[in-house]
Fold this protein.
Amino acid sequence: MNLHAIRAIYLFEMARMRRTLLQSIVSPVLSTSLYFVVFGSAIGGHMRQIGDVSYGAFIVPGLIMLSLLTQSIANASFAIYFPRFVGTIYEILSAPLSALEIVTGYVGAAATKSIILGLITLAVASVFVDLRIEHPVWMLAFLVLTAITFSLFGFVIGIWADSFEKLQMIPMLIVTPLTFLGGSFYSIDMLPPFWRAVSLFNPVVYLVSCFRWSFFGTSDVNVGLSVAMTLIFLLLCLGAVVWIFKTGYRMKT
Amino acid sequence: MQPILSLRGVSKTYATGHAALKDVSLEIARGEIFALLGPNGAGKTTLISIICGLVTPTAGTIAAGGHDIIRDYRAARSLIGLVPQELTTDAFETVRATVRLSRGLFGKAPAEAHVEKVLRDLSLWEKRDSRIMTLSGGMKRRVMIAKALSHEPQILFLDEPTAGVDVELRRDMWRVIRDLRDNGVTIILTTHYLEEAEEMADRIGVIRNGELILVERKEDLMRTLGRKELALQLAAPLAEIPAALARYPLALSPDGRRLVYTYTGTGDPTSISPFLQDVAAAGIAFTDLDTEQSSLEEIFVRLVRADA
Ligand SMILES: Nc1ncnc2c1ncn2[C@@H]1O[C@H](COP(=O)(O)OP(=O)(O)OP(=O)(O)O)[C@@H](O)[C@H]1O
Ligand SMILES: [Mg+2]
């Protein structure tokens, strides 16, 4: 195991992120606040309660997931796309590194940043509503698991993309719709049976649901199933990464 | 002694169908400076990229320090440092941060003293905290060399290290390269400046259309392929070359005052004296004499022009 390399990549990436920290924080703080104004206050004025949870509090786990997903994908995809784009990837490719080590460094740094941003979103949310977190350890565990999984996904996108447009495309076309339709702002129990069944194919439903469970102790779908689905997705992404390095896909000629 | 680098039957055909390398075999001895020459598109960068793991060979095997570069990539790659042809740097990072990263990537524990030494050797110490994008092209080139040296490689690849570097700096780099060699580092460089190869290299390889057409010690190359000229400045102009000297390859200048005798380095080194005796016997007096040896540049041009 080339631990020095993992450490070097991680620190280098964290230093890069530290430079852009301010703008990284401003945007989630602003968008979270906006969501609260629009969904929490405007719509929540009519909804008030979902189960025994106030609507304002109900949307918090979904909002955090939204920012976690977007940030993880954006951070990790950019982190690997950029060196490919400018050519500095040559050094990574010529170094005595295994795929696992490269991924650990990049994904670790991307996940760290999105976890920090997720916690900041949580802090901003707690300014607007009273929050109780019933299973804080599970909450953190889900946060970490999701951040890692989607950073891996972002890493795969960053390697697949061969233009900045493609880098934006997946998050725009797939991830944002999935998150909005993933029960961030409503309980899927509120949907008609058909759409409820369709929702069960949306992986984000499981993430939001089990994350919400860690806050309020209630969930739309079984928590064990949720964790299993997330782990399966994580393994899929990991498999993709291993394949990428084995074949040199989009990295070697 | 076991070669530090050995290539057997290495070929590369790119996805475009272009055969960039054809069955290249080569052995590099520990501690030598090897210059790889060849016209644009000959396959020099391709060859280096394959050894460094950036390009997958279509056929062939390569071992660095006895380690197969694919099966045993960790051991092989930790010996190798690469300074690629293209200037690619982390524009937004500082010089020191990027050099530290390189050291870590190659599995070496942080060592500020070594990083400082490398930066000082390359006259980059003053710039250590500058962002790379604020540096000039020549300085960026040196940053890339610093990155490769940061992890103390045994084998160093320099793909056109002195392209776009001013004369003084080029001499500095030659000094750095020689110092490395004196410390046992094996150096493989490509260059289009032939005087650089002539100045630096122990051995020279010439690659043309993906084929390694020649590998020789520099002196041997200069001797076997080098052309020498002996020019006589005549006391009185000659109308034509005298019959007594007809067996020599001679050229007479239009004004008849300069007689040039061309001979190859392979010939008997004493062949000059019979010629001069014959000149004297023919009653030709000369006021001055000079000799000239063809440079590597001329040899090279002749080599790559020749049809395969
Ligand atoms: N990724 C690639 N795909 C297809 N063809 C390539 C690729 N890279 C290089 N080539 C071709 O392979 C040949 C050898 O290229 P290479 O870069 O090795 O030449 P070189 O000897 O380094 O030339 P130069 O002196 O210009 O640097 C060229 O004809 C080039 O067009
Ligand atoms: Mg080249």
Residues 5-222 of chain B form a domain with the Rossmann fold fold (CATH 3.40.50.300). Chain B has a mean pLDDT of 90.
